[in-house]
Amino acid sequence: MKKQTSTINIVVFGSGGVGKTALIHRYINSTFITQYEPSTDSLEHCSKIINDVICTINIQDTSGSDLFETLRELYVRSSDGALLVCSGISPSTLNELPEFYNVIRRFKSEEDCIVVVVINKTDLDLIIDIKEAKRFAESINAPWIKTSAKTNNNVVEAFSILVQRILEKNPPKTPRKCLIL
Ligand SMILES: Nc1nc2c(ncn2[C@@H]2O[C@H](COP(=O)(O)OP(=O)(O)O)[C@@H](O)[C@H]2O)c(=O)[nH]1
Ligand SMILES: [Mg+2]
Q1: What is the residue-level pLDDT of the chain in tens, covering all 181 positions?
Q2: How many domains does the chain have?
Q3: Distances in Å between the alpha carbon of 178 and those of 2, 129, 175, 181?
Q4: Which of 35, 66, 151, 168 is 20 to 30 A from 52, comparing alpha carbons?
Q5: Which residues are close to ligand 2, an ion, with C-beta < 5 A?
Q6: Site to substitute for ligand 1 among 13, 18, 40, most atoms within 8 A of C-beta
Q7: Which residues fall within 8 angstroms of residue 34, CB to CB, at 6 or more apart?
Q8: pTM score > 0.85 for this model?
Q9: Is residue 88 situated within a structural domain?
Q10: Residue 178 lies in a domain
Q11: Which residues, if any, are the signal sequence (predicted)?
């Protein structure tokens, strides 16, 4: 039987320096980037088999460029779901997550907001209050996960949980049988 296919668009939001680009690189290229390039707004692509579905995944990396407001709207409108990333060693980045969530809510209804809260840099000594992160995730009905782009802890899982939730909402297409007359 032919496998089902799905094209999935993800946007990764979070304050500068939390590890958005590093998480995407780790997921796609299995490598860790150590240099910090704040203005990355690139669109990355990969193919993964998740829940037995062949997924073409487009991942929009984001930054705080001047064009951010306009771009954010574009990214949210064309996305199926989002990772909201904060850094485990920076409480202010957790406090800023509701702002990113509200941007998504401006363009999507509550039930169309498919989000996973990611606490990154958990290879370091954590400063943020995990209970607070949990409370925020529960308040928006989202799962939360601790990751490290550096050690590769839970990176695949973070993206997979998001993709699985997207697939639940948007069931994949079954390939049509080709009929040759
Ligand atoms: N220790 C540690 N450093 C990380 C982790 N993720 C990213 N970094 C570092 O944090 C800095 C900012 O990461 P980057 O992905 O560019 O942040 P972005 O602005 O959110 O895209 C870089 O120097 C990364 O090497 C992580 O999980 N653990
Ligand atoms: Mg970046």
Answers
A1: 678 999 999 999 999 999 999 999 999 999 999 888 887 789 999 999 999 999 999 999 999 765 667 888 899 999 999 999 999 999 999 999 999 999 999 999 999 999 999 999 999 999 999 999 999 999 999 999 999 999 999 999 999 999 999 999 988 877 666 666 6
A2: 1
A3: 12, 55, 9, 10
A4: 151
A5: 20-21, 40
A6: 18
A7: none
A8: yes
A9: yes
A10: no
A11: none
Is residue 29 classed exposed, middle or buried when 0-12, 13-18 and 19+ CB atoms within 10 A define those classes?
A: exposed
Token code pair at residue 121: 């840099």
* Confidence at residue 175, expressed as pLDDT on a 0 to 100 scale: 67
Range of the domain at 128: 4-169
Mutate to test the pocket of ligand 1, among 21, 35, 151 (most ligand atoms within 8 A of CB): 21
